[in-house]
Every structure is written in structure tokens, then in C-alpha cells.
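Page 42, continued from yesterday. The earlier attempt failed because a stray header line got pasted into the input along with the sequence. Redoing it now with the clean sequence only.
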Amino acid sequence: MRAFQYENIAKKTWDSETLQLVARIRECKGRQEMFLAQKPAALKKLVEIARVQSTEASNKIEGIVTTSTRLKQLCEEKVLPRNRDEEEISGYRDALNTIHENYEYIPITPNYILQLHGMLYRYSGREIGGRFKNVQNYITETRADGNAWTRFTPLAPYETPEAVAEICASFSKAIDDGVVDPLILIPIFVDDFLCIHPFNDGNGRMSRLLTTLLLYQSGFVVGRYISLEAKIEKTKDVYYDVLQSTSVGWHEEMNDPTPLIKYLLSTILSAYRDFEDRVNLGDEKLSAVEQVRQAVKMKIGKFTKSEIMELCPGIGKTSVENSLKALVEDSSITPHGQGKATYYTRNK
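This time it went through. C-alpha cells are written below.
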């Protein structure tokens, strides 16, 4: 079994693109503190939106879905799950809420990882939750002709507990010693976690939960306000390609984690930019119509009422609807379609 010695990462040099991404994220983190102190009202609504989007997107990546109405009801704990997909969505909701509310008190140890995994399956009759895998698993892909092939063979079940213990211990030591920037170390930890593939099921969702947890613990809390999972879901083909490239040579300790580092850092930076845009749009000095007008200016091509509501978390649904109506009346935008299928475009 390969060794995990994260302190050795300190000896590695990184290209300018990676270093620039790290620097830009740290600049955003500095401004993040200012926004958190100055605009708490706008941030509360962003948290509610992000939790629903994260729960939906992380499950959707794995083909676990329900309707938008049921999703919102499940996230608000107003209904009980009625099928296997909804059971797993509810489990993810609980695990994500636990991280949001308790991230400072969740050590990175195998036992806590097992507990979070157990939450994923707490509503399910399946007995795999909170247990390491007991059979060899494989990461497979399906070719265009419909034939499946094994892209990567993770560690064997008997090697898994020790490997998870090693990555947790090595990660914690490197963080405590301050020898590696967390923005570099977190993607490497996640890459190793996925290559170990410690569970019979739920490895992808657990990797995204752990990404959120580790970022929060290092002070990068943008995922509370802008869903990182939603951004990953929108680029999931790139995400899977990156994971494939970083697994090549993993068993021989010859793999290169750089593609995943750049992918996750780019995702985090994009979330910070969205965060600043949405908080700035929530300026109380602007009327609802002007906030919506500014949000519309940020859109290219067609857009929906829901997209504008996400950009303007500080105003309600009725205010957004009235503002869009006003913009239609003054010929700033044009509506298309009817009812729930309505979308808008900007006029020249």
C-alpha cells in the first residue's frame, strides 16, 4: 500500500497558474470577512439557497433526484422521504447541516468520517452506512458503444481502514505544522480519499462533504453562501475527466494531483466572485427595481425569475416579480413563453 506523507508536499514547486489561484482566493477571503460583518441580512438568504442547491447538486451528480418541490420540502424537513432517492437526499441534508453548524468541532479522523457516512444512510434500510467497504469496488465508465470498462481499481477492503487513518493523521499534522497551504492540501486529501474509495457506496458525496468541511475549518466559508456542489454539477464532465487524470499512477505514487487542485481552486474562486456580486447587489440603498436591474445586467442570453431571485437574495419573490414587470414595461427586457416556462432576454 502506498504511503501518505503530506509534509513532503512542502518540497514541491507549483506552476504560476496554481499560485495565482491561491493568491486570488486569499484576497477574496480577506474581503469575505468584511462582507460577513457588514451585510448579515443578505447573507442569511444566501445560506438558505446554497444549502438546497448543494443538497440537490451533490446527489444529482450521482443520479439521485427528486422534484424541485419535494427537494425544498425535504430540505426544510417538512416531509418524510418516500423513496430511496429521497432517503439519500435527506441523509445528505443532515450531514451537510451538521458540517455547517459544527465544523469547528469535527476532527478529521476515521470515526468522524464514518459518522458522517452513517448520516447519508440513516433513512435507508441499507446497512452500509457508517461502515468501510467489505467487497472490492471498482471505478467504471461506460463507452459510447455501451460497454463498461474499469477505469481505476481502488484499495482492497483489508487495506482501507489503515489508509483512511493514515490520510487523516498526515493531513492533520501537515495543517497543524503549517507546512502546506490548505488550498493545496485539501484537493490532495480529497484525491487520495477518492482513490482509496473507502465505502461500498457514497464515496463521491462524502468527498464533497469533506471538501466543504476542510475548507470551512481553514476559514474558506464561501460554500455556506454559494454552492460549490452546484458549480461542480454544472461541469461534471470536466470533474470526472480531472479525477481520471489524477488517478493515473496513484498506486505507484506517481500520480499528479495538479489538475484536481486547479479545478477545485477555480471552482472556489468562481464561488467567491459570485458571492461578492450577490452581496453587492443586496445594497439596501438600492430599490428593489434597481437591484433587479443590476442583476439583469449581469446576465448574458436568456434568464429566468429564479436566477434573478438567486442574485437578489435580499428581496422577496413578489418584489422580484414586480420589478421584472416594471423592466418589461420600460422595454429593458422582453419576456418569452408562459407560466413556469417563462424566461427573459435583455433588450439592446
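Notes: The radius of gyration is 21 Å.
Reminder to self: strip header lines before submitting.
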